[in-house]
Fold this protein.
Amino acid sequence: MGVLDGIQEEIQGVAERAGKSVVGIGQRWGIGSGVVLANGQVLTNAHNVRADEVEVTFPDGRTETGRVRGHDIDGDIAVLEVETGDSPAIEWATNGAPGIGAPVFALSNPGGRGLRVTLGFVTGTERSFRGPRGRRITGSLEHDAPLLPGSSGGPVVTADGRLLGLNTHRLGEGFYLAIPADEALRDRLDTLARGESRGRVRLGVGVAPSEVARRMRRAVGLPDAEGLLIRQVEEDSPAARAGLGSGDLIMQAASRPVRSTDDLFAALDAADGGAIQLVILRGTEERTVDVQLGGGDQAAS
């Protein structure tokens, strides 16, 4: 058997072992992929689900309406409750995270348009990227198995068809990131499968980064200052209730300097739904503002 014959046999074997667990998400706009997590449960990216219900297409062509059981938008994962029929749950890899150079296979079924299987290699580990609402997702697996649009939410697997990660982010020319299928992901999915959607506390603001903030302040004759410039405030958000407004510069959060959105997110996470004290600059006047965050899925940043 030649090398190419061996590669073909490996790809066909992966398709046979894991392909029966790969589903399509959506049918027209915003299509994606997913994978059967357990009987009656499908795992996909949160950004593939834009409502409480979504169409799920199985390998045999059967289409069912899936309902969101739980979602973590900041972590970009969602568990759907749907009749999975004879489609088996994918098996998880048990040998830990693969190293650079390890061969991997990416599977997808973009919007139910048919199974795709591609071969690639791990090109990086412990990578990070920003999720749908700007928070950093860390620990991701980078690989170069080619993916069509609509492949996000599909699995990355080993040669024996076991789950290594969930494709979620394209890095430009030929590189992709997958959320690793580790114990932390198992724990999060268990929570979502129980119907406990996970949301992180948020201020309810849209911000400009510090370099943009400096340029905008200079443009109106204000002195330079380090921080994030509030460009919009959502109605009835914690920020709105605390009196924050467009043009305010967030300089500190919980007594720590704010130089990036990551600094702000870290302070909000540490507050854990309670209150947080911000130091802002309004024009040239420095003010201290106490913000009652509340719990759960607050809007905006």
